[in-house]
Write a structure and sequence with these properties.
The structure holds two protein chains of two kinds. Chain A is an alpha/beta fold. Chain A contains ten helices and 25 strands. Chain B is 61% helix and 0% strand. Chain B has nine helices and no strands. Chain B is globular, with a radius of gyration of 18 Å. Classes of the chains: A alpha/beta, B mainly alpha.
Chain lengths: 437, 199
């Protein structure tokens, strides 16, 4: 009874809030044309922001400017490498955004004039905005590994932006002889998808186990530890052969960390040889994932700090450097949120709500954020990490909600691991639909 | 009698004020609900294969489920970890949000013969609280949606109920026991096929 009454009460409150908002909005309609939002980049963060702004207020004119006709999700691309799924299954177009009334323009943004509020493209077009959302994803610090650059990466792929790079790496793995060595060089922190390189190791180990069982995997890592550290090490050991006490000992997977000299300093593409403190290592197939920074346009638009990432207000995702420009996704500094697809999707919704409120002349609403990252170690063995985040108004920063989140329990429970794998696939279906459909 | 009513009214008013005040300045139901979409789909409509649709969920059912997850009383992979991130007021706000969304049945494969057998079992053991087709329209039932829910999720749920990893009311416990006694695991499988056939 009391619940029912309270529900009615809440609904009345919501109705009042809506009436209030539309009254304010009425002022804009009389005042002139509809408000304009330009979204630079149609990845997970950009596409989510565009769709949700339209869902929250369909009077706002939203344009997404994206260079590519299709988007390949980085998440689940490791399953393409192992042959568990097709490249097509991680490919998404932009017709879904059109259904929400988002204008999608395929062009490359060359500049953002923060004073005049204009976005300029390589195609020679200009787009005026009231608020701009920049979601450029990541770029690579090519200078960090001698001999490895964008050109060399065509033959020795990073495959850290999915698509043709993923296809190249898969082809090389398929062509590799049984008994060959796959060498992977993960990046230093911070980087997109912290568990990604280690899930990649597991997925490729799974492929080798079934197709090239004499082969091995060598990880040359510039870090001492990584995301889901204990779970991955236990998973590698359980399924593929890895010795946590002797990580370079017998077993399909070998890991040389920073303390053991795993940081790669240079690469010779012709002999496929990587140089690290620990020595020179030749691979049959090599995958180098370089150190990362915000996508190029973030630099051109002057949105980055000295570390190469974009500082933002965690409540609105508005840049602390340029007013009326918001940065979401991997390019922004949203710590303690990780640079993950789920976080990008969550940040984009907080940003969308803030942008809508600000355009309506209201204050940004209280945010709530979630991150969930699944990794698939082997068929029937899914693991996850999750966390709920809030905004600390006093400290002016995003915080982890105490007591929330955490990892899949370390003790192996086959029933629950199988469920986690099915939930990982559900997550993939639901997040991609939430972003693109 | 009259006195009690006045007291009740006063209590309700108090709790209204308290509940509204305790959540004042907090995240809205929509803000909270939108964070769930990554795993449960936009507005809680899941595309499967396993994560359940929570759009159109019964308000009281969701509040109870979240509180049980939070307390670690309901078996889960990830929800026990996530539910700990929310206050009671936030759980109420997000439950309000999803209760107000339209339920969409899952399109999935099912065994027609098994579904036919399951329909009879549903009528006999479950219909009273879960509605004619596994979707109760009576808010007082406070029951979970079964008809048109994703099959793997139903499988996990029934397995957990059987293993005592998920609590049941007295009435449900009795019905489940009777179903097990009469038809065993095969009966449960038929029941699940029936729910999956609701499209």
């Amino acid at each position: 009874m009391s619940d029912f009454t309270r529900r009615k009460f809440l609904k009345a409150g919501i109705a009042t809030a809506i009436a209030g908002a539309s009254a304010t909005y009425g002022g804009f309609v009389i005042g002139g044309a509809s408000k304009k939002v330009v979204v630079v980049g149609g990845g997970i963060a950009g596409a989510t922001a565009a769709k949700y702004i339209r869902m929250m207020d369909s009077s706002i004119d939203v344009t997404v400017i994206e260079a590519n006709k299709d988007y390949y999700t980085c998440f689940m691309s490791n399953e393409v490498l192992s042959g568990e799924r097709t490249l097509d299954s991680i490919k998404f177009g932009y017709s879904g955004l059109g259904k929400h009334g988002v204008n999608v323009v395929h062009d490359t943004v060359t500049g953002i004039d923060a004073n005049k509020r204009v976005v300029k493209t390589a195609g020679g077009d200009s787009f005026k905005y009231d608020r701009c959302i920049v979601a450029p994803g990541i770029d690579f610090k090519w200078e960090t590994i001698g001999g490895y650059d964008a050109k060399v990466a065509e033959g020795t792929p990073h495959a850290w932006k999915a698509g043709p790079q993923t296809a190249t790496l898969r082809k090389q793995l398929e062509g590799m002889r049984d008994g060959g060595t796959f060498v992977i060089a993960p990046p230093p922190n911070p980087f997109r998808c912290p568990p990604g390189p280690y899930e990649r190791v597991a997925q490729i180990a799974h492929y080798f186990q079934n197709n090239k069982p004499k082969s091995s995997i060598l990880i040359l890592d510039p870090k001492k530890k990584f995301s889901k550290f204990g779970l991955f090490k236990a998973g590698w050991k359980k399924h593929y052969g890895y010795n946590p006490d002797n990580p370079t000992g017998p077993g399909m997977i070998k890991w040389i960390n920073s303390e053991a000299g795993g940081t790669v300093s240079s690469y010779d593409a012709r002999s496929k040889t990587l140089t690290a403190k620990a020595g020179k290592f030749k691979g049959d197939v090599v995958n180098i994932i370089p150190a990362q920074k915000a996508g190029k346009i973030a630099f051109t638009a002057g949105l980055t700090n000295d570390k190469g990432w974009c500082p933002i207000n965690g409540k609105t995702f508005e840049s602390t450097i340029h007013k009326n420009i918001h940065v979401v996704g991997d390019a922004c500094i949203a710590k303690p949120l990780p640079k993950s697809g789920y976080a990008a999707n969550s940040e984009a919704k907080v940003c969308a709500a803030a942008v809508v409120a600000l355009l309506q002349g209201e204050g940004a609403p209280t945010p709530s954020y979630v991150n969930t990252c699944y990794s698939i170690i082997a068929p029937g063995d899914g693991i996850s990490v999750a966390m709920v985040y809030a905004y600390d108004e006093g400290a002016g920063k995003i915080i982890k909600v105490k007591g929330s989140g955490g990892l899949t329990p370390g003790k192996f429970d086959p029933v629950m691991r199988e469920r986690e794998q099915q939930y990982a696939y559900s997550w993939f279906n639901n997040i991609t639909s939430d972003v693109f459909k | 009698m009259k006195k009690t009513r006045v007291l009740q009214a006063a209590l309700i008013t108090c709790s209204l004020v308290f509940s509204a005040a305790s959540h004042a300045g907090g995240a809205s139901g929509a803000m909270l609900g939108n964070t769930c979409a990554g795993c449960h789909g936009t507005n809680g409509v899941s595309n499967g294969p396993a994560a359940p649709t929570i759009a159109g969920i019964d308000y009281d059912y969701m509040v109870e489920a979240m509180e049980e997850f939070k307390a670690g009383e309901r078996n889960a992979t990830i929800m026990t970890r996530i539910a700990k991130g929310y206050t009671d007021a936030e759980i109420e706000a997000m439950s309000e949000f999803f209760a107000g969304k339209k339920y969409v049945k899952a399109m999935q494969k099912y065994d027609a013969a098994a579904a036919k057998r399951g329909a009879k079992l549903h009528k006999k053991y479950c219909k009273n609280c879960h509605g004619d087709t596994g979707i109760s329209t009576d808010k007082d039932d406070d029951s979970g949606v079964l008809g048109g829910q994703w099959k793997p999720y139903l499988n996990y749920t029934f397995a957990d109920l059987k293993d005592g990893k998920r609590s049941m009311g007295k009435k449900m416990k009795k019905k489940m026991k009777n179903l097990q006694k009469a038809k065993g695991d095969a009966g449960v499988a038929d029941l699940i096929e029936y729910y999956a056939s609701q499209q």
